[in-house]
Every structure is written in C-alpha cells, then in structure tokens.
Amino acid sequence: MLPQRFINEKGKTIGNVSSKEFDKLSSNEDIVTVYMFRQLNMQLDISSVARILPAIDKIMSEHSIKLDGLMPFLRNNVFIPQGHEKLYARGLLAGFNKDFVAAALFLVPQIENSIRNVLEYHGHVITSNLTSSGVQKEKDLNVLLRDENVIQIFGEDDIFMLRYVMTENLGKNFRNLLAHGLLTYEQLQHQTSIFSWWLVLRLVMKSYNGSYNADNLTDN
C-alpha cells in the first residue's frame, strides 16, 4: 500500500498515513478512525440531501413550527444551559426554514457549553489542570469529546459523530473552521451545516426525552 496524504479544499495537508502504518490498520485506533472518517465523508452529503431535507419538508408540510412552539422542548432541558433556550430555539427554527447559515451561527458555538452543562449536572469536574501561572482553564470541545465521562453519558456513537463533524481535521472540523471565520456563506449553507443542524436537534431531543439523566444512562 502506498502512503496517503490528506488535503483540504485549499490544498493544505491536514494529515498523513505512512505505508508502514497500513500493516497496523486493525490494531491502530487512530488509523482506523482515519478510514471511518473517509467513509463518513462519502455518506454525509448523501444523507443530508436524501434524508434530512425531505424529512424537513415533510414536517413543515404537516406542522406550523414557531419559536414559541419550540420552547417547551428547551426549557428545563439538561443539555441547554439556563438563558440559552432562545438561542437554541432560533437556531433550530432556522434549520426547519432551511436557513442553515443562521442555524450554524446560532447552534454550533453552543455545543461546547451544553456538554459542560450536562457534565456539571452529573457532578463531574469540567476544568483542566492549572497552568503555570495558576489559571484554571475550562476544557475546550476537542478535549471534552475525548473525556470518558462525556462518552459514557452521550454514548460512543454520538460522540464519535460530534468529533467527526465538529473538531477533527480529517473529518469536517466544522466547529473549528466556523470559530476562526474560515467558512464562506456557501459553505455555511452546505451539506455539513445541514447535518450539523440535525445532529444538534438529535442531542436536544434525546436530552428532552431523558437520555442524559443519571437513571437512564444504561439505556443510552
């Protein structure tokens, strides 16, 4: 097998896999993850267009979704910190209206704090170690998505998908690209944004249904 280099749309190298590492494919988790991400890259765009958009059309043809109508799902929801309900409502409503630019701008920055909120609810420490200057920093999303407590609460499948979509260079890296202002308007209306909206909606509704409550973790 030849070595492979992974390049983004701007021609920048974002990862390498040497020929020697192919021999360890079945035992090297990082290399397996690379190929899982590659497979997901082929499937995500299809799922967004062929499944999520038609589902939105079906829902909107049968229901009149308004901002106030979303609030009962968001209040007292452990995934949503107090005071952030309207941000989620506006982001989710934008997605139902297929304005995925607004949906991404409202929802994607909220994910990190929402995961912290769930961890706090379960009594887990959410700060990293002290820096040399004595400052205690909060774990960022990249670190949170590898935290064993987070994986236990949210489940391996959802956390793996969040890593792939939001933070991994060899995945979509959507959250990091958005945070650094590297996405164009067209990219924010693209299939990745559609899928991100659906993923957030899934997490919100799972939390509303009690999946992240302590007594329901075994059923996650």
Q: What would your notes on this structure say?
A:
The chain is mainly alpha-helical and 220 residues long. It is 58% helix and 7% strand. The protein is built from twelve helices and four strands. The strands form two sheets. Strands 1-2 form a two-stranded antiparallel ribbon. Strand 3 (127-130) and strand 4 (136-138) form a beta hairpin. Helix 2 crosses helix 12 (191-208). It starts with a strand and ends in a 12-residue tail after the last helix.
Quick structural gist:
With 220 residues, this protein is mostly helical. It has helices at 19-22, 29-62, 67-74, 85-96, 100-107, 111-121, 141-144, 148-154, 156-167, 174-179, 185-188, 191-208, and strands at 4-7, 13-17, 127-130, 136-138. Residues 21-27 have low confidence and may be disordered.
So what's the overall shape? Answer: globular
Largest sheet: 2 strands, antiparallel
What is the helix/strand order? Answer: EEHHHHHHEEHHHHHH
**Separation, N- and C-terminal Cα atoms:** 39 Å
Q: Strand tally, please?
A: 4
- The low-pLDDT segments are 21-27
Number of helices: 12
Helix fraction, binned, reads 55-70%
Mean pLDDT equals: 85
Radius of gyration: 19 Å
Question: In order across it, which strands form the biggest sheet?
Answer: 1-2
Q: Which percent range describes the beta-strand content?
A: 5-15%
Q: What structural class do helix, strand and pairing data support?
A: mainly alpha
Itemize the secondary structure elements and their pairings.
Blueprint: E1 4-7, E2 13-17, H1 19-22, H2 29-62, H3 67-74, H4 85-96, H5 100-107, H6 111-121, E3 127-130, E4 136-138, H7 141-144, H8 148-154, H9 156-167, H10 174-179, H11 185-188, H12 191-208
Antiparallel strand pairs: 1-2, 3-4
Helix pairs in contact: 2-12, 3-4, 4-5, 5-12, 8-9, 9-12
